[in-house]
Automatic annotation (TrEMBL):
<dbReference type="InterPro" id="IPR052726">
    <property type="entry name" value="Phage_Baseplate_Hub"/>
</dbReference>
<dbReference type="Pfam" id="PF05954">
    <property type="entry name" value="Phage_GPD"/>
</dbReference>
<protein>
    <recommendedName>
        <fullName>Phage protein D</fullName>
    </recommendedName>
</protein>
Length: 343
């Protein structure tokens, strides 16, 4: 006997509830009979968060009265029934696609949007400023709120070489050991070393996973980093060497050549480069029933899977709801701390 497809998206997820807010107005009830898919992609760094919504357009209203405008605010909240919902996506509409027959509409929204000019290329030099001051300068110029704890790292000189603000800040964050993104009107910096130490918000076992794949690699894993940088004050080449902890059998050395105005700049860059090189030595992907708490930047504990047990950081999360499959979450993860084992 064939299973009847739910007549609305909400019927497909009876244990959960969702809400869509467009242009400041709750449109959930109006859209629910027509929505066939909602998918939110949440990244810890490097890419804009992305919200995709597919709807049926049987009477053509999306080409007329309901036609959305680029830049319109679009928010997605999700949660278990009888519990407060979590706002997953604070985005702005970037693209609208029409297909047919039958007539359907796909709306794509991005966290960085198109109204703030974050993607405008603009050359700009910065001299004798800290990393935090540079981030604050960009945040003020773009009318964003800077979020996150940034160490007092003084940078003698750096130039934004015809880079978009997003590209420029992502480069600085990467060089000095941070993850960076713009989301919900906030310019967010996360210290990666703090993320590597954070505890899991919940525990997962193999029984919770519908699909998984993990990879433990030696190739491209560095046991140490050797850096050479030009010190403009001493007018000579300085060499530094830094060793990594717990990298197994690897004997590879990461070689880094850069310009640094101070030993402190060189040290931060060296440590960040080595940590990044080894971040993905034990990494993977997994799928499970939907859970809105599992977002990028959060950590969870894995138990009952032998040497895979430990704390894992979520690099990227996809929350997908469809009429056919209900609500599922897919994660890209890396292990930050192995489980402690009794001898």
């Amino acid at each position: 006997m064939a299973v009847e497809e739910p007549k609305s998206l909400q019927q497909a997820i009876p244990r959960f509830q969702y809400a869509l807010v467009m242009r400041g107005k709750d449109v959930t009830a109006a859209l629910d009979p027509y929505v066939t898919r909602i998918e939110f992609r949440d990244n810890i760094e490097g890419e804009s968060d992305q919200l995709d919504i597919d709807v049926e357009d049987v009477d053509g209203r999306w080409r007329e009265a309901w036609y959305p405008s680029k830049g319109d605010a679009l928010l997605l909240s999700l949660g278990r029934r009888a519990e407060p919902m979590i706002t997953l996506a604070t985005t702005e509409i970037d693209e609208i696609r029409f297909r047919g027959p039958p007539s359907t509409v796909s709306v794509r929204a991005l966290s960085t949007g198109i109204n703030g000019g974050y993607r405008t290329r603009e050359p700009r030099p910065f001299e004798n400023m800290t990393l935090k001051q540079i981030a604050q300068h960009v945040a003020r110029r773009r009318k964003l709120t800077l979020v996150g704890t940034i160490r007092d790292i003084r940078i003698d000189r750096v130039t934004q070489y015809h880079e978009r603000d997003v590209e420029f800040l992502a480069r600085l964050a990467r060089e000095y050991g941070y993850a960076f993104k713009i989301t919900g009107g906030k310019l967010v910096f996360h210290a990666l070393d703090a993320m590597r130490e954070q505890a899991g918000i919940l525990t997962l076992t193999e029984a919770d996973l519908s699909d998984y794949e993990f990879s433990d690699q030696i190739k491209d894993v560095a046991s140490s980093v050797e850096s050479r940088y030009h010190d403009p004050r001493k007018k000579r080449l300085i060499r530094r060497r830094h060793k990594a902890e717990g990298v197994g059998a690897s004997t590879d050395t990461l070689r880094l050549r850069t310009r640094a105005g101070t030993p402190d700049m060189a040290r931060h860059r060296t440590e960040a480069a080595l940590a990044r090189a080894n971040d993905d030595r034990l990494a993977g992907s997994l799928s499970l029933r939907g859970n809105p708490r599992l977002v990028s930047g959060a950590s969870f504990t894995l138990e009952g899977m032998g040497k895979l047990d430990g704390t894992w950081l979520i690099r990227a999360a996809v929350h997908r709801i469809t009429r056919q499959t209900g609500y599922a979450t897919n994660l890209q993860v890396r292990q930050t701390k192995p489980a402690r084992r009794q001898s």
